[in-house]
Amino acid sequence: MLNSYFKQLLITGIWLCAFGFQGTTQNNSSEEHVAVALRMIGHEILLHSGDSTSLVLPVESDKQQYTLRFEAVFQFDPEQLVATINQVVVDTKIAESYRVEVKSCPNEVVVYSFEVDNALNSAIVPCQGRVQPKACYFIQFTILDSIPAVVQQQSPPAESLAEFSPGQNRKFFVGSAVIIVVLILLASVFFLVKKRRGSSDDSKLITLGEYRFDLHKMELILGPERTELTGKESELLFLLYSKVNTTVNRNDILKEVWGDEGDYIGRTLDVFISRLRKKLEADPTLKIINIRGIGYKLTMEN
Which of 205, 236, 230 is nearest to 218 (CA)? Predict the structure, then answer.
């Protein structure tokens, strides 16, 4: 039976083959590309304001609109702001046509805005020369293109898809088959390693009647159920198991389990014995017997 890990590998392989490693990767890379470009814009804006240490916060995106926030207040010259943003946009090719709105942080009022269409070589740039005071601002950058320029450049023309030759199709499907085979082999190796580890773990378990005792993980296992033990409970149970069907002197137990910790007060040992009895009660063949005046004995049927 295939487990979820193998199924996920197989589904991933089929998905990659069916879509030819294209669609989703392009969209993600486009959005990430725009975000990086905007952070570059934020960096330049802060530098022009004389700030070389404050952070440009992570870019927020909503479809074609991106929000750029800053850690510190700054001032800006509209003319310089327009030149800076447009230079980065042109260099990074994130848009042909776009709108920029500078808003104040407390009330989100637009204090400055402009539009640029590089394809038509036109721009609406008001209020040049009026330097804005130092304050808390954030910038909303809206791409007005129907499809971002980055995606247009990355997407193959329709003609190229139509011109896929039979030979290219064969290569594509052979490559797809190879990917699926590699994923299946990886999953098989994963199963073998997991199986061997499981067998190794099983060999370290101690059999206590119907229970299995995992000393390393401090657990009692009964079928699908696992019962956690404390460190002292594990040490006490292992000590009794190591001398099964033999009475262990009370003082020896205290010395072996509690040592010189000094936390043995009154009936602490009796309390721990009671806890172990309760956790082992599902198997009536396992008993921890109190040998009055001497100590305790774990009895277990062969």
Answer: 230
Q: Which residue has the tokens 């808390």?
A: 136
Q: Does residue 115 sit in helix, strand or coil?
A: strand
Instruction: Tell me if the pTM is above 0.85.
Output: no
Strands (E) in the chain, as ranges, are 60-62, 65-68, 74-76, 97-104, 110-117, 122-124, 132-135, 137-143, 206-208, 211-214, 219-222, 225-228, 248-249, 286-291, 295-300
- CB half-sphere exposure, 237, CA atoms < 13 A: 30
Which 8-state DSSP code applies to residue 110?
A: E
- Give the burial class of 236: count Cβ atoms within 10 A of its Cβ; 0-12 exposed, 13-18 middle, 19 or more buried: buried
pLDDT digits (tens, 9 = 90+) for 228-262: 999 999 999 999 999 999 999 988 988 888 876 65
Domains for the chain: give ranges and CATH numbers. 23-155 (no CATH), 207-300 (1.10.10.10)
Two structure tokens written together for 128 = 């040049």
Taken in order 202, 206, 212, 217, is the CA torsion positive or negative? Answer: negative
Q: Which of 46-50, 176-180, 192-196 has the highest mean pLDDT?
A: 46-50
- The 10s digit of each residue's pLDDT in 282-299 is 999 999 999 998 999 999
